[in-house]
Amino acid sequence: MTDENLYQLAERVGQALKAKGMMMATAESCTGGWIAQAMTAVPGSSEWFERGFVVYTYISKREMLGVKPETLEAHGAVSLETVREMTAGALERSHAQVAVSVSGTAGPSGGTPQKPVGTVCFGWGGKGGPVHAAVKHFDGDREAVRRQAVVFALEQVLAVAGDGSIRR
Predict the structure, then answer these.
(1) pTM check: above 0.90
(2) Which residue, among 25, 122, 7, 22, has the nearest Cα to 65 in the 3D structure?
(3) Is 53 part of any domain?
(4) What's the CATH number where 19 sits?
(5) In a domain, 167, yes or no
(6) Count of alpha carbons within 13 Å of 67, Cβ hemisphere only?
(7) 21, 36, 52, 115: least surrounded by Cβ within 10 Å?
């Protein structure tokens, strides 16, 4: 996806959020704030983007989002359990109605047989609703994995803000 296509996706997400009077928050690990950057690149984004949490370490996930130490110890940072807690924490610690979280192994190192490079976990949902989660496996180098993660995350927010459906 080109930068222009990414910008257009972020613009569509913003329009859908604005139409519903919703604000979003992000909780990002492997994308390092790229989702927040994509959203705030669109003029007027203060009408739909509330805040972003960049939580790269276990400590930051615990302190900023309330991820339980037991969750991180039992499942690791790259897990459905962790991203669910990251999403819930972003909703609890912001004024947003929608949140998305991402944690993964973008590479080139850090992969394991169980969680190879390109494994990315996502959590997303709305305040008062269920938190959904999915694992994706992306190909490519570090930037390609991260870019694909940003796109997938924004598509989930668009689904929640747009028509309420969940895409996988």
Answers:
(1) yes
(2) 25
(3) yes
(4) 3.90.950.20
(5) no
(6) 34
(7) 21
